[in-house]
Amino acid sequence: MVFISYNTFGAGNKSPARTSQKGWIHVLDGCTPWPDELAARYRASGHWRGETFDRLLRAWARAHPHRTALVHRERRLSYAGLEAAADRVARRLAGLGIAAGDRVVLQLPNIPEFFAVFFALQRLGAVPVLALPLHRRSEIVHLCRLSEAVAYVVPDVHQGFDHRELAAEALKEAPGLRHVLVVGDPGPHTPLDGPGTDVPAGPDDPSDVALLLVSGGTTGLPKLIPRTHDDYAYNVRASAETCRFGPDTVYLAALPVAHNFALGCPGVLGALHAGGTAVLTDEPDPDAAFALMERERVTATALVPPTARIWAAATEWAEADLTALRLLQVGGARLLPEHAQQVRDAFGPVLQQVFGMAEGLLNYTEPDAPQDVVLHTQGRPLSLDDEIRVVDEHDRDVPPGTTGRLLTRGPYTLRGYYRADEHNATAFTADGYYRTGDLVRRTPTGHLVVEGRVKEQINRGGDKVAAAEVEEQLAHHPAVLDTAVVPVPDDLLGERTCAFVVPRPGATAPGRNEAAAFLRERGLAPYKVPDRIETLDALPVTAVGKTDKKALTELARKLAAGGSARKEGNPRS
Ligand code: OOB
């Protein structure tokens, strides 16, 4: 086993794929490793323990084979059963020629097969690219091409959407894609179930990339976030410890498990790491979720703020017994103090705020934190080795307690997006800090309060929408000359999207329905379709001639409150 497989490369540099004598790819081409001295520090402090996810699953299955690992509807899978399922899928994939270093786009909802495939890929040393269930052609084709995926794993039909049709388009548009594997009725594709071949011993290097997470993004299409075994195993283990997960933990995954929060913060992997049970569902409405929580005696779950508020309201009339619940994590978007209070009033002192990101850094309010901290802050960094800087626009530290831009680096925060040299040059400082794009303030106790953001991203109740991506897509509409997408405040989701559109001379700008149909047709995920469309004769510009997003955000706010675009803000009317 090669313990230290990374060479030292600066942020933004490409590291070459390294091939061992046996032909395994050790470091994915296009990933930026941690510098040697930091890697050594993270190992010395016991954060990085040289674990791989394949060895972890085997160790769990050996330690308690008969305990329940996963529950889905009426199905219960023991740890031994999960390991056997992963082995079966690994044999299947090996039979198709999927091998160490290959990337596989995994787009499955919250079903046990997600984890069977995830761990099968770990077995093979192949790398899952975790697409969200709501991603559509635009995102999927991009993810397949960017990762040069050889396979794409989908359900047959999920929530009325036929993934086999999307897969057929992906096969046409992503040249490297060789296999589509379907859970359920395969249609023209390959069933995930089926015969396979022996699995060759895979690579066993903890500093290899274990998975690629998809970023919420701020520019154009989503980016890929390489997470190594060392860093993600630490992410999971430290989160499980902080959240006091143990063998009696019953974690309900109601958010998509392809998202970092429900996967590893501590999520399903945290529950498994602790020897507990994970219950999978994608029905987060309170009727279904509460019934499941009562049935399974769920002790912990994670929600985005809008769902947390809906659940809090539902406790007024719901009769389910939720007394087993000890931890209710809320994160992904800002939870206002008054909403935090509502959640706390409804569920008792089980609320935990989580401020995290797929890129790494996680902040949790501690389970025994004073109520004031839980209501008013978004938590404290998970690791003693998380380095935090709060800076102004020139990267100068702001005085303590002042709001500024959050920069971070640490043992589980990426050093570069996958194959994104140009973006990496600005997304990181020269000394490797990730520019989160979030505006925060640090309290004297070291807790962070998220005050806003500098990045152009709309946070639609936890679903991240990159303004640039929607703008790019809308610009393809034949009647659209120019466009700018901004957030509008929304009581439930926190924010919704508003697209300002300037029509081409003589053309009529598309209305909301037409724009929505157009964007869906182009394969954009449905949650990225603008909630509002407003027409302008021209976009306002700043002194240097850039689109004035500040003015547009203000205008969108006024319009949402009942004004008119032409009266209030169109500079040329
Ligand atoms: C989580 O991850 P992502 O990658 O979908 O989104 C990260 C961004 C952050 O940069 C921040 O802008 C926002 O989402 N965010 C919050 C927040 N938690 C995330 N903004 C305000 N308050 C919070 N509590 O969203 C994520 C990943 C792991 C755990 C939890 C959330």
UniProtKB/TrEMBL annotation:
<dbReference type="InterPro" id="IPR025110">
    <property type="entry name" value="AMP-bd_C"/>
</dbReference>
<keyword id="KW-0547">Nucleotide-binding</keyword>
<dbReference type="InterPro" id="IPR050237">
    <property type="entry name" value="ATP-dep_AMP-bd_enzyme"/>
</dbReference>
<dbReference type="Pfam" id="PF13193">
    <property type="entry name" value="AMP-binding_C"/>
</dbReference>
<feature type="domain" description="AMP-dependent synthetase/ligase">
    <location>
        <begin position="58"/>
        <end position="418"/>
    </location>
</feature>
<dbReference type="InterPro" id="IPR045851">
    <property type="entry name" value="AMP-bd_C_sf"/>
</dbReference>
<dbReference type="Pfam" id="PF00501">
    <property type="entry name" value="AMP-binding"/>
</dbReference>
<protein>
    <submittedName>
        <fullName>AMP-binding protein</fullName>
    </submittedName>
</protein>
<dbReference type="GO" id="GO:0005524">
    <property type="term" value="F:ATP binding"/>
</dbReference>
<keyword id="KW-0436">Ligase</keyword>
<keyword id="KW-0067">ATP-binding</keyword>
<dbReference type="GO" id="GO:0016878">
    <property type="term" value="F:acid-thiol ligase activity"/>
</dbReference>
<dbReference type="InterPro" id="IPR000873">
    <property type="entry name" value="AMP-dep_synth/lig_dom"/>
</dbReference>
<feature type="domain" description="AMP-binding enzyme C-terminal">
    <location>
        <begin position="469"/>
        <end position="546"/>
    </location>
</feature>
